[in-house]
Specification:
Structural class: mainly alpha
Shape: globular
Low-confidence stretches: 292-311
Mean pLDDT: 84
Largest sheet: none
Number of helices: 14
Strand content: under 5%
Length: 311
């Protein structure tokens, strides 16, 4: 019984922590910093934190051809492309809306898995997908759901992130982690992502020096990056102890917490249609989620929580 309450407490802490990263990302992106400059510093923080965790656990970073290919794919699908579109979108859309849209990862992953033959069609999961689409429509179509109707033009760009995270999760589900645990995998992907990010950042003129001491925007970026790395390690631990299905339920807490953190940190307020859209989308996710599975070891844990970017 004590373990059950411990796991539930960790689950809530993970969801509350991850929910804060959306408004923190908006604070970081709303000051004029360019996307790849933000991604560079985000990856620097993740490499330091995840690298430190890897060393403290007595692990090494595998450098086999298969591992390097894995790092490259995850760096592109899970970081460079979706995070670039995230920072562009979050600067123009309410953070609460982004918290709802990012929850669509399982909904997008389902039809991809169908096309690849990795999943079988079921009416229950198809209904979940339909509910997810309805949730997006409730945000995009009515003029009253967004503070400015012109924001709807950025919703397709905001959906690029969930698409790429779904591709990432599909890739991991199909090819596995090549014998690594999830923290090692994320460390390697973050390191390769950092190497790839540098020339792109310099070519586009997105570089900015990190001021010391960091200001509000820079502090928000550092805090959100540290939170993600530490919370991800916590997610892997929870999945190994309580099972992947139980751990994945933090998705619902993340979305709800993201809306609440946006109200507390940014003073955002949402129309009843937005709250309805969140409820409809979460109902869709509950239908699309896979059935119960037994507890899994860290090596088999999903690479990232269903609703969160990989680093």
């Amino acid at each position: 019984m004590k373990e059950r309450w411990l796991y539930l407490g960790v689950l809530l802490a993970l969801g509350l922590g991850w929910g804060s990263t959306q408004p923190l990302g908006k604070i970081a992106a709303s000051t004029g910093y360019k996307p790849f400059g933000l991604i560079f510093w985000q990856l620097v923080v993740c490499v330091v934190v995840l690298g430190g965790l890897t060393v403290l656990r007595g692990k090494r970073l595998p450098l086999t051809p298969a591992a390097l290919r894995f790092y490259l794919v995850i760096a592109v699908l899970g970081t460079l492309v979706p995070n670039a579109t995230f920072y562009i979108s979050i600067a123009r859309l309410p953070a609460g809306i982004m918290s709802i849209l990012i929850s669509m990862v399982p909904l997008v992953a389902f039809p991809i898995a169908l096309m690849l033959g990795a999943e079988r069609f079921s009416q229950r999961r198809a209904m979940g997908l339909a509910l997810g689409m309805l949730g997006v429509c409730l945000i995009a179509l009515p003029a009253a759901s967004l503070p400015d109707p012109r924001m709807a033009a950025f919703l397709p760009l905001a959906m690029v992130g969930p698409l790429f995270y779904a591709l990432e999760s599909t890739y991991v589900a199909r090819f596995g982690l090549n014998g690594m645990d999830a923290v090692q995998a994320m460390f390697g992907a973050s390191l390769v992502g950092l190497i790839l990010c540098v020339p792109i950042m310099l070519a586009l003129g997105h570089w900015f020096p990190m001021p010391l001491p960091p200001g509000r925007a820079e502090g928000a970026l550092i805090l959100s990056s540290v939170l993600h790395a530490l919370l991800y390690a916590g997610f892997v631990w929870l999945a190994s102890k309580a099972g992947a299905v139980f751990a994945s339920q933090c998705s619902y807490v993340v979305t709800a917490a993201g809306l609440c953190w946006a109200m507390v940190l940014l003073g955002e307020r949402f129309s009843p249609l937005v709250w309805l859209a969140a409820a409809v989308m979460l109902a869709g996710i509950s239908l699309v989620q896979p059935g119960k599975r037994s507890a899994i070891a860290p090596d088999d844990a999903p690479l990232s929580p269903p609703t969160m970017p990989a680093a």
